[in-house]
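Design request, tokens follow.
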């Protein structure tokens, strides 16, 4: 079993920038995270350090709590959840809390951070197509592109877009109340570097989008 990060390493991981995973720490701390496969040093100046997918998983999972030996089954009931303070795009779940007054600013900052991550991690520095982080976080990436463009997610008191995972590799489904908003979402995703097709749900005949990150 892989050793969990030390308390000091965990603090560095938890303090990584939202979305991009850019790290700040001493050279010793960053080198230790690289050695463990939780971070990488970007080859281009200024040679910043970023979380790897494994590092993102550590950050998105809360530290393990001690489990009583008398109730080992309780360990199976603990499900990973986003750590407090980690930005999460709104995917259109009824359970999502309503956005606060600073939400637009947070979304704008997250989107700009994602564009910077594209620039830093796409081999040619391109910002017009998704990067590896987006392909590993399809639902969050598509939802962020939509929310950053001003589309409103479905919620407890409103109906808007909903982004859902699909059985298909590298594809998400996007639902909207009717054809107009659906096609507006399609235009936004295409402009953000996604390949988008419109489909019909066989049972309900409802239209939806199937979107995949464009590679070229």
């Amino acid at each position: 079993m892989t050793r969990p990060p030390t308390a000091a390493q965990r603090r560095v991981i938890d303090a990584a920038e939202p979305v991009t995973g850019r790290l700040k720490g001493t050279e010793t701390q960053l080198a230790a995270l690289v050695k463990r496969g939780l971070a990488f040093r970007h080859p281009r100046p200024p040679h910043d350090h970023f979380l790897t997918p494994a590092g993102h998983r550590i950050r998105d999972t809360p530290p393990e709590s001690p489990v009583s030996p008398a109730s080992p089954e309780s360990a199976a009931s603990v499900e990973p959840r986003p750590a407090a303070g980690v930005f999460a795009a709104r995917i259109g779940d009824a359970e999502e809390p309503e956005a606060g007054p600073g939400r637009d600013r947070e979304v704008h900052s997250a989107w700009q951070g994602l564009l910077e991550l594209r620039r830093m991690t796409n081999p040619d520095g391109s910002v017009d197509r998704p990067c590896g982080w987006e392909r590993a976080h399809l639902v969050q990436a598509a939802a962020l592109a939509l929310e950053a463009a001003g589309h409103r997610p479905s919620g407890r008191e409103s109906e808007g877009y909903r982004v859902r995972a699909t059985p298909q590799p590298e594809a998400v489904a996007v639902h909207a109340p009717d054809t107009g908003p659906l096609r507006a979402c399609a235009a936004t995703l295409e402009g953000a570097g996604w390949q988008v097709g419109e489909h019909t749900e066989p049972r309900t005949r409802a239209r939806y989008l199937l979107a995949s990150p464009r590679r070229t």
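Comment from the thread starter after seeing the answer: thanks! Residues 65-85 have pLDDT under 50 and may be disordered.
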